[in-house]
Amino acid sequence: MTTYKADVLIIGGGSIGLNCAYYLLKAGRKVTIVDSKEIAQGSSAGNAGHIVPSHIIPLAAPGIVPTAIQWLLDPKNSPFGMKVSLDPKYVLWLLQFTLACSESNVQRAIPPLNSLGQLSARNFSQLIAEEKFNCHYQQTGLLFLYNTASAFEDGKREADLMQKYGIPTEVLNKSALHDREPAARDEVLGGVHFTGDSHLNPALFLKLLGERVRAMGAEVFENTPVTGFDVADGTIRAVKTSAGNFEANEIVLAAGAWTPAVARDLRLNIPVQSARGYSLTMSATQVMPRHALLLGERRVAVSPMGDLLRFTGRLELSNTDTTVNAKHIAGIERAVREYIEVDEKLNVHETWAGLRPTTPDGMPIIGRSPRYRNLILATGHAMLGLSLGAGTGQVVAELVNGKETAFDLNPLRVERF
Ligand SMILES: Cc1cc2nc3c(=O)[nH]c(=O)nc-3n(C[C@H](O)[C@H](O)[C@H](O)COP(=O)(O)OP(=O)(O)OC[C@H]3O[C@@H](n4cnc5c(N)ncnc54)[C@H](O)[C@@H]3O)c2cc1C
């Protein structure tokens, strides 16, 4: 059995793992990454590519459970689905999520989500400029479109709340909206523009970041699944993989939706459930949207990426495989046609499914493990794992180096569960 020595070992080379690698290398550490598949793919490569510091309201918020039940009654058009299972961990997660859908959870989550979102957005623009990444990064904001007066009113209320936290927003009436986004169909009666948001092609960004961390000296072991751990005296002595054992000074666990499965030997309570979503990517259409869009009532994202256009949607709780369901891809396309002008026949290049690592209170888990002195958890970023990646990378590097973190990480510690 081969034994490898590592300074910082990162488990998982998705958005979070690669950002951790980048900021650790910049902070002078040596980095080794192990991934069960290829790095820079994970659940981000086919995602919407939205970098959204405006998203400070957690998924677990008042009203979401009744809305989800209503959606389930319309399976053809629903943006939401869930597995029926009596797995105790899943049932407990559902209970915790339901209890967390409160105003007090929203108030608790906003400060850390806001701090992490702002830090990440700043880091993204600096990283992309410094490294000269050509990944269709567009700082044109995120535009919500609404087709019904009631959803538009809800959107305006959220915009009011976000403005109080310093998020730049512009509410657009019908004519202002159509001036700003000519791709919108006549049915769209208003919108909210979060002008501090941005978007990029996530597959290109991660590919470039993967190449960059290799060039900076990271050792990368692909197709090397972690299979278990040797632990003693509150320390992880070895991480077992298909290629041999890794002994590391520090270990960062960033395995996204697979984190609880990877950590099963460690006897830690990491309440992460997967939430599957889909995307379809096509050649540019005749009328390309000028902005990244979110289609309010349908919860579908639209992302122009140079000569490509991507539609993304659906959240299916606790589905762990990445099989693409053609019925839901068709549902996403149908939803988009309600809001924007789209060619009758689309030249689709790729359909894709990915797993969002979702916690019951809608906040990620970032911090040192309470049980093992050389383990840091960086997971549970749900629908924001690209957006919050660059900030997570920085604070994980600060934790590893024993530095004061850029903001208070206590609300994100796993002990809160
Ligand atoms: C449809 C959809 C749209 C989305 N849109 C956006 C968006 O616009 N903006 C945004 O911010 N987020 C978005 N997300 C969410 C985002 O993609 C996730 O939050 C993000 O991918 C999580 O990153 P991660 O690094 O934690 O996990 P992943 O990207 O899944 O990476 C985890 C890595 O761990 C590896 N791994 C698994 N098991 C093992 C093992 N045993 N040993 C070693 N390695 C292992 C995996 O191979 C993988 O590479 C979207 C998600 C979906 C599904």
Enumerate the spans where pLDDT stays under 50 for 5 or more consecutive residues.
none
How many H/I helices?
10
Topology as a string of helices (H) and strands (E): EHEEHEHHEHEHEEHEEEEHEEEEHEEEH
* Rounded radius of gyration (Å): 21 Å
Report the CATH architecture of the domain at 3-45 and 204-271 and 362-416. Answer: 3-Layer(bba) Sandwich
Distance between the termini: 37 Å
Shape: globular
Instruction: Identify the CATH homologous superfamily of the domain at 3-45 and 204-271 and 362-416.
Output: FAD/NAD(P)-binding domain
The proportion of residues forming helix, as a percent range, comes to 25-40%
Heteromolecules bound: flavin-adenine dinucleotide
Mean pLDDT: 97
Strand content: 25-35%
CATH first level of the domain at 3-45 and 204-271 and 362-416? Alpha Beta
- The count of β-strands is 19
Estimated structural class: alpha/beta
Largest sheet: 9 strands, mixed
CATH topology of the domain at 3-45 and 204-271 and 362-416: FAD/NAD(P)-binding domain
Structural key phrases:
nine-stranded mixed beta sheet, binds flavin-adenine dinucleotide, eight-stranded mixed beta sheet, single chain, alpha/beta, 27% strand, 19 strands, 417 residues, FAD/NAD(P)-binding domain
What does it look like?
- This protein is an alpha/beta fold.
- It has a domain at 3-45 and 204-271 and 362-416: FAD/NAD(P)-binding domain, CATH 3.50.50.60.
- It has ten helices and 19 strands.
- The strands form three sheets. Strands 4, 5, 6, 7, 13, 14, 15, 16 and 17 form a nine-stranded mixed sheet that branches. Strands 1, 2, 9, 10, 11, 12, 18 and 19 form an eight-stranded mixed sheet that branches. Strands 3-8 form a two-stranded antiparallel sheet.
- Strand 1, helix 1 and strand 2 form a beta-alpha-beta unit.
- The longest helix has 29 residues, at 103-131.
- The chain is globular and about 65 Å long.
- The two termini are 37 Å apart.
- The structure holds flavin-adenine dinucleotide.
- The site of flavin-adenine dinucleotide has 42 residues, from helix 1, strand 13 and strand 17.
- Residues 11-17, 34-37, 41-44, 47-50, 225-226, 254-258, 262, 277-279, 312, 354, 356-357, 379, 381-387 line the site of flavin-adenine dinucleotide.
